[in-house]
Amino acid sequence: MMSGPAPEFKNPVVRWIDVRLPVFSYLHHEYRAFPVPKNLNYFWSFGGMATMCLIVMIVTGIVLSMQYTPHVDYAFDSVERIMRDVNYGWLLRYIHMNGASMFFIVVYIHIFRGLYYGSYKAPREILWILGVVILLLMMGTAFMGYVLPWGQMSFWGATVITNLFSALPIVGDPIVTLLWGGFSVDNPTLNRFFSLHYLLPFVIFGVVILHIIAMHIAGSNNPKGIDPKGPQDTVMFYPYMTAKDTIALVAFILFWAFFVFYAPNYMGHPDNYIPAEPLVTPAHIVPEWYFLPYYAILRAFTPDFPLYWPMAWIGIDAKLAGVLGMFGSLILVALLPWLDTSKVKSCKYRPVYKWFMLLFVADVIVLGYCGGKPAEGWYVALSQVATFWYFFHLLVLTPVIGWFERPKPLPASISEPVMAAK
Amino acid sequence: MRKSVFALAAALMMGATGAQAAGDKIVPAEQEWSWTGYFGKFDKASAQRGLQVYQEVCSTCHGLKRVAYRNLMDLGYTEDQVKAFAAEYEVMDGPDDEGEMFFRAAIPADKFVSPFANDNAARASNGGALPPDLSLIVKARATGYGSIPLNFAKWMQGNGTASGADYIYALLTGYEEDDETANAWLKERWDHAEETGHLTKHQLEEGFKEHVTAEGKYFNRYFPGHNIGMAPPIDDDYVEYEDGTEATKEQIARDIATFLAWASEPELEQRKEMGWKVILFLVFLLGLTIAAKRRLWKNVKK
């Protein structure tokens, strides 16, 4: 993307610094005179919202950690101390606690935007893969953060999820022992989770910077999925896009505030207000809502599930199959730039794939619903159908539709869609 | 140990879910509470009566260790009243200059003194059952997102943890005298479920099974599995209220639930008060940002 010549800075100090370290030129190029397609809709604001989430999570997290004690005997009490005795501690904690859910809501919509408008296609493949890496890091961070209050769900969630790694052949058991720091979920586990929960957000921050650098190479995709042909197709990032993003950010903070002040525990689990008790298992162990689709895939792999049969034939047991299915579901998303054979980016111009795209989203929602229900009765069958469809969509439908679909004619440019349509 | 944890986790993962699914859990009826909604505040008179019930009845077995005596000033007590209240309890302190631990009268800064020194002592005195600490009981018994369709509206009205108070109220008023009345009640529920088609095929094949309350336990309608270790703790006129309110069983249950809701969420009033101000401000700010954007984008051709 062209972004014009370097500006002449009036302030002599700024000029002096910029010659030696061109931060001001950089900011000018990348955030001021940076051209973005003028037809971006509000789906393009979710990246900015996610960045804000990350910053809020880091800031509140740093303050919370000043009052938190990572020890099995004190963790729960220290969180309750934050809630009761620390000035505005309840506010900080509820912002942080709901922030995790908000972060995932925003990121899932951000991913949907990428899927629907084909933002993963050339030349944005690395940008897309970095996004999947961020998602994986977020999942790890969120999982370990949920363990820190050391409530019943913290403890049992940690037990179930860390045990997943034991399904891997040979390396499985050593990995689990390493995660636990012993032979069960205990104080060493809590200690290392706390350490990693503090570390990973900064790793995420680093990958987000790479994600943004990669985005600035090709520029933003747009709802039409065609490249801007010149200045008539774009607006400057500042002030046009920032003005739009500000609206989205304020609306988002409003949504977040509603949960913080009026339903702070809605997205949590009541059992986590019971201190961890290794001898008492909760009736239902449920992960946080943002993990439910993966959890449903994990549990769908039972001996009567046809997708499992070929795996059983080469000697993979059902538990390992579930783990592979769960991680595979995300790896396939990262491979989407190569699975999708269509040259057309935006689903707007893909009359067939558009509907399958939306069906895929519905399928993930069904998976999420099943993940929150006990694995019994018809929920199992439903989650197996949905799991099958998930893989069928990515592995079969996406390439095949790309080959056979006749896309609608693309507009000549962002500014002249009507002429092209005629 | 490790193997059993592993087996358990695997079982959970693959979907064994225990006895809960059999329909033992009964959703308590919704009660009217003063602190629900967007501007809710605790009924202080009721909470004060609840404190009296806690002190005279519950505290023989249940602790309240996360609440400090000084917190009682939130309920409208004066500092002197709190000091006098705290002074009735003894806490262990020390070591003193001789290295000895000693007992002293509690001060407002102390947390509520628990009735037992530790969980084992509590179990030993209660036939093996552990009376839970009540500091967070209303939050811990609320219904979460696991039951979205049922409770979504309630949560969106800012009434989330009220479902925990509903449970406390239902539990305290949900005892049956003996197995005969218990089974009459269970049969009635069974028949109703059968009529409305809410029984599973498996349940229909098995038929109605008489409930036999376990040795040393009591039948409670709302306790999961119905066998509760706590003897019916309250009854009409079980306490004599200092403010002259008639102490029916229902009144006592309401008051203790209100008090415990406050104990679980002492920040609730401050939170809701701040909430509408923040939201009002954000709505105003949203209007400004929309106006600014519209003005800016006026000259951009579609």
**What number is the mean pLDDT of chain A?**
94
Structural class of chain A: mainly alpha
Sheet with the most strands, sense and barrel status of chain A: 2 strands, antiparallel
Number of strands of chain B: 4
Strand order within the widest sheet of chain B? 1-2
* Inertia-based shape of chain B: flat
How many independent structural domains of chain A? 2
Q: Specify the biggest β-sheet of chain B.
A: 2 strands, antiparallel
Structural class of chain B: mainly alpha
Order of helices and strands of chain A: HHEHHHHHHHEHHHHHHHH
Spatial gap, N to C terminus of chain A: 29 Å
Reading side by side through the largest sheet of chain A, how are the strands ordered? 1-2
The poorly predicted ranges of chain A are 418-422
Proportion of helical residues of chain B? 40-55%
Question: Count the helices of chain A. How many?
Answer: 17
Q: Mean pLDDT of chain B, nearest integer?
A: 88
Q: Oligomer, anyone? A: heterodimer
Note the topology.
The complex is a heterodimer of chains A (422) and B (302).
Chain A: H1 12-20, H2 23-32, E1 35-37, H3 46-65, H4 75-84, H5 89-116, H6 125-147, H7 152-164, H8 172-180, H9 187-218, E2 234-236, H10 237-262, H11 292-300, H12 309-313, H13 318-334, H14 336-339, H15 353-371, H16 378-404, H17 417-421
Helix pairs in contact in A: 3-5, 3-9, 3-10, 4-5, 5-6, 5-10, 6-7, 6-9, 6-13, 11-13, 11-15, 11-16, 15-16
Chain B: H1 2-13, H2 44-56, H3 79-87, E1 90-93, E2 102-105, H4 119-125, H5 137-140, H6 148-156, H7 162-172, H8 179-195, H9 201-206, E3 218-219, E4 227-228, H10 249-264, H11 268-297
